[in-house]
């Protein structure tokens, strides 16, 4: 049963004068350092200070995009691909925030495989993947950009791809540098990598926080309060990465707390959380549009019948950061 977000009586009151307003946020995956600002905002009282009680919903088989679009959650943390795919497909979503200011994904291979020195060398090799059309567009672009023939064999292994790569059962896969990449380093795995943006793929933001466009238009003060507190959480985490890692470990079920600390250290060292001006969460229009166009042009974004969508020419209304004003 979907609860109403706010009563009609609440709409007549200033946010500060009302009782704590209950909201929910759905996650895109199990708890990790991408979500650190949300946890900080909750556990350090930033949401409470804005008059909000925020429930962080556990990851489930239903995507965060679907939960938000159906009003089963008020806000959602979505991967860049999940947001752009859902929005292009007609979902009532608006992006409010981008966590990672640059692409954190990369293509990785086993350094013991002496046949791989550059993306062109991946032609004819075996890829362990996750089953999305984005992967094929990404890999083909990288190989072609490097002068190779975009032909390879694929096996869908999900997170088992990393063990398969380490054992030499496959030749390459994709990972997030700030999590799987850090984990590989902690495990002492010998891996080389190629950044997507060095081989023809546009740089992009990673990790959007989104809400329904309807909620944004009907209750902008609630959205603004939630986002102010969320920003305060990410700002605090950026200023206190060690303490933020401790807070996340306390909030979740992490068999290896050292991974959380190493991930947070990697995020800060890589300059991913703050942009060039030192801001957190800023969506850069050119960066946003370039990736959207790449996905359209590559045939990744499809309608409900499975047909590739045509580039609309403008996606500036897919996101809104007026809450920052």
From TrEMBL:
Residue ranges crossing the lipid bilayer per the database entry: none
Keywords: Iron, Metal-binding, Pyridoxal phosphate, Signal, Thiamine biosynthesis, Transferase
Residues annotated as domain SsuA/THI5-like: 32-244
Stored SUPFAM superfamilies: Periplasmic binding protein-like II
Keyword Iron: yes
Signal peptide: 1-19
Involved pathway(s): Cofactor biosynthesis; thiamine diphosphate biosynthesis
Substrates-to-products reaction catalysed: N(6)-(pyridoxal phosphate)-L-lysyl-[4-amino-5-hydroxymethyl-2-methylpyrimidine phosphate synthase] + L-histidyl-[4-amino-5-hydroxymethyl-2-methylpyrimidine phosphate synthase] + 2 Fe(3+) + 4 H2O = L-lysyl-[4-amino-5-hydroxymethyl-2-methylpyrimidine phosphate synthase] + (2S)-2-amino-5-hydroxy-4-oxopentanoyl-[4-amino-5-hydroxymethyl-2-methylpyrimidine phosphate synthase] + 4-amino-2-methyl-5-(phosphooxymethyl)pyrimidine + 3-oxopropanoate + 2 Fe(2+) + 2 H(+)
Entry's Gene Ontology molecular function annotations: metal ion binding; transferase activity
InterPro entries for this protein: NMT1/THI5 (IPR027939), SsuA/THI5 (IPR015168)
Any Gene Ontology biological process: thiamine biosynthetic process
Pfam families named in the record: NMT1
Subunit relationships: Homodimer.
Main function: Responsible for the formation of the pyrimidine heterocycle in the thiamine biosynthesis pathway. Catalyzes the formation of hydroxymethylpyrimidine phosphate (HMP-P) from histidine and pyridoxal phosphate (PLP). The protein uses PLP and the active site histidine to form HMP-P, generating an inactive enzyme. The enzyme can only undergo a single turnover, which suggests it is a suicide enzyme.
PANTHER family (alphabetical): 4-AMINO-5-HYDROXYMETHYL-2-METHYLPYRIMIDINE PHOSPHATE SYNTHASE THI11-RELATED (PTHR31528)
Similarity field: Belongs to the NMT1/THI5 family.
Protein name: Thiamine pyrimidine synthase
